[in-house]
Amino acid sequence: LYHERLNVVFNTSNDAILLLNSDGIIELANPAFARLFGHTSEEIINQPLSCLIEINHRRYIESAMKEVTATGKSFRGEVIARRQNNTTFDVEISLTSVLNNQNHMVCNLHDVSHYKVVDRMKDDFISMVNHELRTPISTALLTMELIVRYYDRLSAEKIRHTVKQSYNSIVALRELVEGILDYASAQAQRRSRDAVPFDVKLTLDRVIEELQANAVEKHQDLQACVTPKHIVIRGKDLDFTRIWRNLISNAIKYTPNEGRIAVRLANIKDSTALDSCDLIDKEKLRNALDFDNNSYLVGQVEDTGYGIAEEDFDIVFEPFNRGWAKSSNITGTGLGLSLVRELIVSYDGDICFSSQVGKGSTFTFWVPLD
What we know:
Elements: H1 2-12, E1 16-21, E2 26-29, H2 31-37, H3 41-44, H4 58-71, E3 75-82, E4 88-98, E5 101-111, H5 113-150, H6 156-189, E6 196-199, H7 200-217, E7 221-226, E8 232-235, H8 237-253, E9 260-268, H9 271-276, H10 282-288, E10 296-303, H11 336-346, E11 350-356, E12 360-368
Parallel strand pairs: 7-9
Antiparallel strand pairs: 1-2, 1-5, 3-4, 4-5, 6-8, 9-10, 10-12, 11-12
């Protein structure tokens, strides 16, 4: 019965479990090992454990195995492991001598890469809060302190200018806080959506009206091109308000004065409708959309802004990523595009983009219609 229980644990564990001899040679591997590393058991038997470990960590593990074999004490640590396809990931490794058998040890490998991502996100969040929130607060305090201390000596024009600086800092702070709260709220509500029919065009009209003043302030041309008068979808109006607001406000923010922003919305039922609409990047859409089974709501925001560097393409939708803007005076949390993508994917849709530095960016999303 004892051996049967051990066998069940060995075969059903989500962690990779290996039986090693005293030289660190693998003699047995459980099914989870194949799922985690991509090797079959047959491929790895009679191979050294060190072949699974990133080269810089091998001496550390070899020393640990010798210590376990010599003393019988257990070992636990973290190393970088390497899969069959040559990708690396973080694992927690433990080595334990087999009871009454100093010639063998059990190796347990637990994937902790997810926790590392969470830790990095936490660090990024703290860094973002430290810089992005502190800056507008400090600016507002300094400008208001100037008024309090020297009010009698300041001209009306100087007071007006100083108050406007404080106002702009507080507005920037509000935008940052709202961005964080929007992201947190969307995370909490993701599993509890009350789907009701609503008109996405009306949502878009409302967001454009809300953001038009921001574009006017920068002398930008913000235009909407919507093919149908109404596009009704089942979901939450708030979700699409967040999608449009983030995409359009980003376009305004990252487009210089006198730039152009075009917002498009279409109901695409087939290839003919795609060919005749005002959308751009049609070839990407043609490859992505499955017209045999669905018609689609397609939204697009095109700008003539600063653009995204090609080396940043892979991290555009990652939380807290701001690319080059991190070192600029443009405020932001780096959460907007991550939130947009999560919301769109929750409707079984997707989003893509094209961009060129100095020429602008185009973000295109699509959602299947009921």
